[in-house]
Structures are given as structure tokens and as C-alpha cells.
Amino acid sequence: MNSPDAFPDATAVVTPPSGPEPHDDPDALFRRCSAAIADLTPDLIAWRRHLHRHPELSFEEHDTARYIRRLLHDFGLEVSSPNETSAMGVLRTGRPGAVVALRADIDALAVREDTGLEYASHVDGVMHACGHDGHIAAMLGVAQALQRMRESLTGEIRFIFQHGEEQVPSGALDTIESGVLEDADVVLGQHLWVPLEAGKVSVRPGPVMASTDYFDITVTGKSGHAGMPHQTIDPVAVAAQIVTNIQHLVSRTSDPLNPLVVSVTGIHTGGAPNVVPGDASVYGTIRTLDEEVRAWVVERLKDIVDGVARAHEAKSATEIRFGPPVVHNDEKVTALLADSVRRQLGEAALVSIPPVMGGDDFSYYQQRVPGAYLLVGAGTPDADNAPHHHPKFTLDESGIVNGARVLADAVVALCRPGAEPLHPEAGESP
Predict the structure, then answer these.
(1) For burial by CB atoms within 10 Å, which of 9, 44, 244, 310 has the most?
(2) What are the domain boundaries of the chain?
(3) Which positions in this protein are listed as binding Mn(2+) (predicted)?
(4) Is residue 313 annotated as involved in ligand binding?
């Protein structure tokens, strides 16, 4: 990636400005916020398209992180690196108030782009096919807009640009461990969502996205001649029985009113048509919206695998790779974001779509700090929008601007003079 000049990782300390006292009129602040994002709209689109041309895979986002750090520095924020391929900007107002964290994911996917866009990926086999380039651009816009309003705000605002969201284990874990949430009162995030048309924003309390776990099953039998299967222990037949029984796990033992998905996505075995192989592997994913169901289904899966294998005198091993938990929105933070949608985009823009069975490691942040996650419409109405993670994935760029407006508004609501803390028990920054 031919990035702009890199900004060194050392923190740039910015002294809080002396200036006018914070404004008393909240409506004036919200109007200033909206105007600032509108003024920055060409920049948001330019940043997004630059990033789209130069995608980087999870934990390889070196140039992406440098690009973000340089812009944050240019905005006048304190800049640091939670890790080598992430970035954080901090806006300190110098006045007591809430500590608000915002998080955007920055990694791309191993997908060969087939959109034909003028700003399509320059990296063969790598593409921003999930909208993370738009997430970065939106949060950069929020950061610059709020920096322009700094003299009218209170507290501290942290802009966390996180690597490796698409992997398990994900980049949220080491980013959080670096201390980005220390003393934070609220955390906010968003996902540009193509199944939802641009101009709409889904805000809902409770579950928004599913937990995301993966299983790898190995069945070990006894190899031999395919013409004499009675002299073998056939791991292919055992694996097939395991796959069938996994389907029964969902359809016959799980409450149909409590969503659960167990998808087998691959079976691998053998090599020659006249040989019964010695082993077979089965792998897939588990998704649920309930942490109790999540724990239960893992144990039941292990029981099924073990039971079927023993019934056929085979051996088995089941490895579970636990990913992010359920994205679960705090009620008070959700209500605040709903108000921001109404204020910035109008009542008609506010919707509440059912939870989706995709996952996101924003949930790790919510385990530490009260937070909420928006799904911001980015689909083109009446168009055949390609799904996320597809080679033809595109998004309506107005969604980037809408997401920035809502997030910036929510921060203003939290950091305006006289704002009441959403969770007083969490305390405020000194």
C-alpha cells in the first residue's frame, strides 16, 4: 500500500485549548455537530475510497494503521498504538465529564474483488468486502468533527481503530488488554449493513448479533481396502452419522423460540476411491443469541461426537474455538442512540430489525463497559445488493455519512455540559 508519510507511533501530546466556556444550548451543539459532518462529507468518501483501494488482512494492517494515525495527528488528537496494527486517538477536553470510547474495525478479507469500481482493490485477493473501510472513514469524520467542537465539550473521547476483527481469536482481545477502556463509561460502535437500505438505522436493546464459535472434529478409524470394509473401521461413515445427528441437535433438542445455528461447513477425508481412509474431519460453526444455550450446545455437540464414534468403535476428538460472545446492547445506551437517530435523520429512519446470526468482537468491549452497537443501512434500495463477504460487495456511501452523524451526535449528548451520566455507578473522569 502506498500510504501517506507514516506518523511515528509515539504519542503526540496536545494541550487543551483555552477558549470560550462550553455552550449552554444543547440544540446548538447538535446542529453544530450535524453541520461539521456535512462539511466533512467529501473527506469521508475520499478516506473510504483510499482505504478500499489498499486493503490489508487481519493483523497485517500496518499501512492502514499508519494512515489512520497520521490523520488523527493532523486533526490535533493525542495518538497512540494499542498494538502494532491498531491506532487510537484521544480528545481530552480538559473538563470533567464522561469518558466515551468509540471503536471501528479496520481489517479486510481474503476475497478477490469483482465490483468493477474505479476505486476497486489494488491488492489481488484482498478486499474490503464487509464495509470496514466505511467504518474507519465514519469514525475519522466523527473524530475531526468533535475536535472542531472541543471547546464546547466535556470529558474525554477515545477513538479506537482495531485490527483483526475477522479472525478467531480476534483483535479485540489484545486491544482491550492494552488499556483502551480504562475508566471508560460508555462504548459505542456501528456496522454498515447492506441488507438494510441506506437512510435507515437499526437500534435495539438486548441481542444484536450472535456469539461466534467454531468446531473441528476428528474421527479416527482403521484404514483398509474399500472392497473389504468389514476389516476396517470406516471414519467416513462415522463422520456422516455425526453430521446427521448434529442436525437433530438443533431441530429436536433445542427450543425453536431461542435461535441456534449449528452449521457443518466442511468434511475432509480420503484420497483414493479404493481405500477406506484412517481418519476424517468435520468442521463448522455454532451461533446463538443466548449465553446459556451457547454453553449447553458445546457440551451436547461433544456428547454426540463421542457417542457416535464409540458406537462404531472409532475414536474422536472435538476442538472448540470460542469466538466473540453475543453482541448485547445496554438499554440506556441504546435509548441514547435512538434519540440521536431521530435528531439527525428523523423518526422514519429509526428501525429495529431482528438480531442477526453474524458475529462481531465488539461484544468483548461490552463485557467491560456499557455499550451499544448500531446497524447502519448501506444497501441501495431496489437493487440486487451483494451480501457481505461477497466479491461483488458494495455499499451506499450515504450510510457512512449517516453513521458518522449518529455517532457524533451521541457523543455530544454524552459530553455536552450538564449531561447526566447514563450509569452513575460507573463514575466519571476527574
Answers:
(1) 44
(2) 26-209+326-426, 211-322
(3) 130, 132, 166, 191, 389
(4) no
pLDDT in tens, 277-304: 999 999 999 999 999 999 999 999 999 9
Tens of pLDDT, residues 333-348: 999 999 999 999 999 9
Give me the catalytic one of 165, 185, 197, 397. 165
Picking from 122, 183, 182, 178, the residue whose alpha carbon sits closest to that of residue 428 is 183
Read off the pLDDT of residues 47-69 as tens digits, 9 standing for 90 and up. Answer: 999 999 999 999 999 999 999 99
CA dihedral (353, 356, 358, 363) positive or negative = positive
Contact (Cβ atoms closer than 8 angstroms) between residue 117 and residue 133: no
The residues with which 351 forms a beta bridge, in sequence order, are: 202
**Catalytic pick among 56, 61, 63, 107:** 107
Cα–Cα distance measured from residue 404 to residue 416, given in angstroms and rounded to the nearest whole number: 17
* 384 tagged catalytic: no
Query: Is 166 labeled as ligand-binding?
Result: yes
Supply the pLDDT for residue 430: 39
Selection from 329, 59, 79, 69 nearest residue 174 by Cα? 59
The response to whether 388 counts as a known ligand-binding position is no
CA distances from 59 to 56, 168, 177, 198 (A): 8, 11, 16, 30
Instruction: Please give the backbone phi and psi of residue 389, each rounded to the nearest 5 degrees, phi first.
Output: 75, 15
Residue 242 has pLDDT above 80, yes or no: yes
Give the type of residue at 54: H
* Residue 182 annotated among the catalytic residues of the structure: no
Coil, helix or strand for 259? Answer: coil
The reply to whether the predicted model has a pTM over 0.85 is: yes
The CATH architecture to which 211-322 belongs is 2-Layer Sandwich (3.30)
What is the CATH class of 26-209+326-426? alpha beta
Q: Is 191 annotated as a binding residue?
A: yes
Residue 404 has which C-alpha cell? 458518522
Phi, psi of 151 (to 5 degrees): -70, -15
Q: Report how far residue 25's alpha carbon sits from residue 35's, in angstroms, rounded to the nearest whole number.
A: 16
